[in-house]
Amino acid sequence: MHLKDHDLLQLDEEYIKKLGANNPAALTNLTTTLLDDLIEARNRLNQNPSNSSRPSGSMPPWEPGKTETEPPSDGCETEDTPDDDSDGTPKSPPSPPKADESDNTSNSEASKKPGRQPGSQGFGRTQKLTITETVDHFVRGCVICGCEYFPEDDQSAYTAYEVVDLAYGDPEKPRVELINTKHLFYEAVCDCGHHNRETPPRIDQSGDWEGITLTEWRLVGAALASLIVYLSMEMRVSRRGVQLFFLDLFALEVSVGTIQNTIIESAAAVAPLEKVMADDLLKEALMHADETSHPEHGKNLWLWCFISSTTALFYVGYRTSEIFQILTEDGYDGWLMSDGYQVYRHFKKRLRCWAHLIRKARGLRDSLSPVERRYGKRILAIMEDELMQAVYKARKGGLASAHHSIIEEHRESLDILKALCEKMTNSKLKKTRELGKEFINDWDAIFRVLELPMLPLTNNEAERRLRHWVLLRRISQGTRSAQGSRALALLASVITTCRIRLASPLHYLRDVIKIRRSGGPAPPLPSIPDSISERLAPLSLKKYLPDSLIEHTVQCADFNQAVEIAQAA
Q1: What percent of the chain is helix, strand and coil (3-state, nearest 5)?
Q2: Taking the CB of the first residue and of the last residue of the chain, which one, N or C, has fewer CB atoms within 10 A?
């Protein structure tokens, strides 16, 4: 029979001792241990996003009864996908092996990708679409003698391919139309005797993208490819859902394999932008960092998130310091906002998220243990009711007047809080002890905002940007390969950066894919709107200015003039 909360609240060590008439010591030890275990178990069950560090919807997808009806895959759901079939034919899942064959599977069979294999019955595209446009690719010169012109009448087409794509209208006449363009490639014999052929560009990828080719020789056009990525990543539609979307809206048959391969190819197309986003991120005066679990084919990895007010960057890897060190290997002299994870603790200009601490303090306040409730109430009274309100007040009064004033005004409360936290580090209660150590270890990072109140109090920016991908993880249950994880991180970085900069990821991805397929470099990231630049100006100034110049500069009416003053100083 389980004790109710009402019963637990009445129990303490004194009550237990009274029960030990025959063997007080043994009974007290046993009962106290059981009571502590029960309280800890109940507290875990009572945790929620308002009193713990758990984000909304953070129930692990592998918990019993919480899995989705569809299995996992790279980015959205598991699907039995073949190699790059480019055929658009819906595939059925393979039959399970017979019992007498399961133990005799050869190494070659075990290495096969899931799904229908090339050469099997029904493999290949069967749907024939009407050609809406024909594009001729003539030979324009001889690569041997340098002849720059061949008469078109003397050339003959030797091969062709079709591209299914979307055509957008304009603001005055909006439309979305499915088009099927046939590309004809010609050949010609030069007077010098050389046989010339016009061929589409083909860029074979290496490293993380080995086996992926960026070429215009694709069934799926750039606009259609960007829509597939948009539906899968931004809208969190499953592979089967994307398949049905095109079938219902355009009567277009697109295989799940083609959808998956399109996503991987799109990630390879945007891969050069990762270094650009990292460089932009390290130029910012403030960066938020956070991480969340990410399963990858049985491995428990982590999705790392680094966010500024203009740029987002995601990585998938182990929860080690290596990820953060790789990002900051070229140096970063801005402010870093993070939670209590010790990987960030060595960073000198670090800020500590108050929201995590306050949620943990609320957890103590709502505990069934009288001791924990007292500690929680005292921490919240100082942090939430006093210091946080002082920061808000200082921000309204101006940065210059607030400098150092909060610490001096609330010195006594800070001393009381520090003494309380030092006492908590010696507590027998695990949650109390850990929260006390967290305060002491991160004391400077926690209360640095009292000196510089224009800095943020929380890491909510990173947590908000991560939430979308946490929901995608719950649907997909992670990724199935290292290549799928890389694709997820890259596309998440580009999509989130576009959203931060108030640009359309759909249109930007279309441009990137089109240019990269033609052999060109990736286009620049969307520009930063003036509204964002002006909002960030006072914070950026802090990166350059000494304290003595803050008051003059931040009060400038013209932000551009303020930046010039800061840089000159």
Answers
A1: 50, 15, 40
A2: N
Question: Mean per-residue pLDDT for 127-134?
Answer: 91
Q: What tokens were used for 111?
A: 């290495």
Tokens linked to 500: 């931060």
CA dist 263 and 260 (Å) reads: 5
Among residues 365, 402, 404, the alpha carbon closest in space to that of 384 is found at: 365
Q: Rounded distance, CA 179 to CA 513, Å? A: 18
The three-state secondary structure class of 518 is coil
CB burial of 331-368 (b: ≥16 within 10 Å; e: otherwise) equals ebebbbbbbbeebbeebebbbbbbebbbbbbbbbbbbb
Half-sphere exposure of 509 (CA within 13 A, CB side): 32
Q: Are 515 and 523 in contact (CB under 8 A)?
A: yes
Of 53-67, 80-94, 349-363, 519-533, where does mean pLDDT reach its minimum?
80-94
Of the ranges 124-138, 215-229, 231-245, 549-563, which one carries the lowest mean pLDDT score?
549-563
pLDDT at residue 388, as a whole number: 93
Distance, in Å, from the CA atom of 493 to the CA atom of 376, rounded to the nearest integer, reads 38
- Measure Cα distances from 206 to 57, 169, 273, 522 in Å: 38, 37, 16, 17
Average pLDDT over residues 389-417: 79
Contact criterion met (CB below 8 Å) for 263 and 229: yes
Q: What's phi and psi for 103, nearest 5 deg?
A: -90, -5
How far is the C-alpha of 269 from the C-alpha of 263, rounded, in Å?
Answer: 10
What is the layout of strands, in order, in the sheet containing 312-317?
A: 312-317, 299-307, 286-296, 335-338, 350-352
Confidence of residue 446 (pLDDT cuts 50, 70, 90): very high
**Over 70: is that where the pLDDT of 53 sits?**
no
DSSP symbols for 28-48: HHHHHHHHHHHHHHHHHHH--
CA–CA dist 438, 241 (Å, integer): 45
Residue 554 pLDDT exceeds 60: no
- Residue that the structure tokens 């064959």 belong to: 101
CB neighbours (10 Å) of residue 382?
Answer: 17
Q: Which two tokens stand for residue 361?
A: 């303090």
Contact of 114 with 81, CB cutoff 8 Å? yes
Task: Confirm if 134 and 184 have CB atoms less than 8 A apart.
Answer: yes
Main-chain dihedrals φ then ψ at residue 275, nearest 5 degrees: -65, -40
Segment 150-158 long-range contacts (CB within 8 Å, at least 24 positions apart): 150/188, 150/190, 150/196, 152/186, 154/188, 155/186, 155/187, 155/188, 156/186, 156/187, 156/188, 157/184, 157/185, 157/186, 157/187, 158/185, 158/186, 158/187, 158/197
Tokens of 208: 């993380």
The gap between the terminal CA atoms of the chain, to the nearest Å, is 72
- Consecutive H or E run containing 179: strand 176-189
Residue with tokens 């043994």: 26
Mean per-residue pLDDT, 393-408 = 67
**pLDDT bucket at 555, cuts 50 / 70 / 90:** very low
